[in-house]
Design goal:
The chain has 502 residues and is α/β, with parallel strands linked by helices. The chain has 17 helices and eight strands.
Length: 502
């Protein structure tokens, strides 16, 4: 009989003695080193037999040990979960698709409420089925859905928008034929923010508060009026900044008539901005557009047409009250400008600026703000004080919007008119282009017409500037003209190279 360990005395203290005592069971050899000879013997056995035979011969009980260890790893005992069946989920998925076809926003909370309503109809209590976030995630995976950011908001759907665009395009074509119009312009205003704070940021998981530092000017903005024509020419911006109104009525009238709505001190900075950039800057307490600025806008861009027998031009403007007052319409007639309203609530598909210009403009402004943020972060490293974000000043913001407007390509301007069906999609960039030696060249007729359009546009702007008593005007070569001259020089060099070859 194997000896047994004596029971410790009930009054004994400390740990019981474990040395020189027999084991309770047979040795498991779990930490025994396996020699190379045994490994070779096992592999040779495996070559002539199956894996099950090898395990039963050399590693008896391995399956049982693995199963028991797997059971030990399960911290929670499996038990059935109550969920909705496939038919109920299919009804919910169809309900979501129907709402989205009507443009109704469906959030995770709305989906959970609908699921709880369906579960209640099936006789399930809130304790049995809770429509938890994990169930919502599983519902997205099973029905191939996801949360998406909006790209457009409004009451009309795509079919209604296309019908309105076709009707608007046919009306514009009739106006063009009636007045024998060759030049079509589109002007649109948009807000320019001082800070472009992102809605999301990278942060550690589990944080209850996600803090984004701002300079306190995230709601401050200015208004920018964009103007371009269907041939791809862009014109100087009209900017409206916020300016405090004087309490003296006489000073207010003087500021409006002589200083574009600014006071004496601020006007010195505005004059410097006028010298730096081609944009014209106005000010009022709300930084918003009004009928007075509309007349100044028409005077600046089309004032050279007054009193001349020129062909009418077409200006497409959205249905804003300050664009179509009696004074604005009357002045437009004096300069032979035909004003046409873009259908309200359909500017997203009928206005070239909203269709093609605004997105690259705002994207460039966001890049400018990120560069400004990086510069502020680098500057804060030189000081021991905590980082304090500074909002861009008036000079920086005006420079940003002018650079963003200059960065928009001519083809982008033309594509806006084409997508709105105002002009035909004639692929104007490839007309008159010849491919030779891997380089595209334009013929002389296309170059002459393009240069003529640019020179005419520059002459019109120059005449308007002279009418408004603007001095220190310098004519600079357009970027497109420089590219065309470079291509012409390259064409000549290639021709000379070909003629010199034997």
């Amino acid at each position: 009989m194997a000896p047994t360990r004596p029971a410790p005395h009930r009054l004994a203290s400390g740990r019981p003695r474990v040395k020189n005592t027999p084991r309770k069971g047979p040795a498991k050899h779990q930490r025994v080193f396996t020699t190379y000879a045994k490994k070779l013997h096992v592999l040779q056995w495996l070559e002539n037999n199956t894996m099950e035979s090898t395990l039963d011969t050399f590693f008896k009980g391995v399956s049982a040990r693995l199963t028991s260890s797997h059971k030990l790893q399960a911290h929670r005992h499996p038990h059935p979960r109550t969920t909705l069946d496939s038919v109920a989920e299919e009804n919910i998925a169809n309900w979501v698709c129907q709402l989205r076809s009507d443009g109704v926003p469906v959030s995770r909370l709305l989906l959970s409420c609908k699921a709880l309503e369906v579960a209640k109809d099936l006789g399930l209590s809130t304790a049995q089925f809770k429509a938890s976030p994990s169930w919502v995630d599983g519902f997205f995976r099973r029905w191939k859905m996801s949360m998406r950011a909006k790209t457009r908001s409004g009451q009309s759907n795509l079919a209604q928008g296309e019908a309105a665009r076709n009707e608007f395009a046919s009306r514009i074509q009739s106006v063009i034929q009636e007045h024998a119009i060759e030049d079509i312009y589109n002007a649109d205003q948009t807000g320019i923010n001082y800070e472009y704070l992102p809605k999301e940021t990278i942060n550690a998981k589990g944080a209850k508060t996600v803090w984004i530092k701002c300079a306190g000017h995230e709601k401050d903005r200015m208004t920018a009026m964009l103007l371009a024509e269907s041939k791809g020419n862009k014109y100087p911006l009209f900017l409206v900044l916020k300016s405090m109104e004087s309490k003296v009525k006489k000073v207010v009238q003087e500021n409006l008539t002589t200083r574009n709505g600014f006071g004496r001190q601020v006007w010195q900075e505005i004059e410097e901005l006028h010298e730096r950039h081609p944009s014209r800057i106005y000010g009022n307490p709300t930084a918003w557009w009004n009928s007075t600025i509309s007349i100044a806008f028409l005077t600046y861009h089309f004032g050279h047409r007054q009193g001349k027998n020129n062909k009418p031009v077409l200006l497409l403007w959205d249905d804003f009250s300050a664009h179509f007052t009696e004074d604005v319409v009357a002045y437009a007639k004096t300069v032979n400008v035909v004003l046409e309203k873009i259908p309200p609530t359909f500017t997203w598909i009928c206005q070239p600026a909203d269709v093609a210009w605004m997105k690259p403009l705002k994207a460039c402004l966001r890049r400018k703000w990120v560069d400004h943020l990086r510069a502020e972060i680098d500057g804060s490293k030189m000081s021991d004080e905590p980082f304090k974000l500074r909002a861009p000043d008036r000079f920086e913001l005006v420079e940003w919007v002018n650079d963003a407007w200059d960065s928009i390509a001519r083809r982008t301007i033309i594509s806006g008119f084409e997508k709105c069906h105002i002009i035909q999609n004639a692929n104007q960039e490839t007309q008159g282009v010849h491919h030779r030696n891997g380089i595209d060249f334009q013929d002389d007729e296309t170059l002459d017409s393009s240069n003529h359009d640019d020179v005419t546009a520059a002459a019109n702007v120059l005449e308007s500037l002279l009418q408004m008593d603007v001095v220190n005007v310098e004519i600079l070569a357009l970027a497109d003209e420089q590219e065309e001259l470079a291509l012409s020089d390259l064409d000549a060099s290639l021709v000379d190279g070909q003629t010199s070859k034997p």
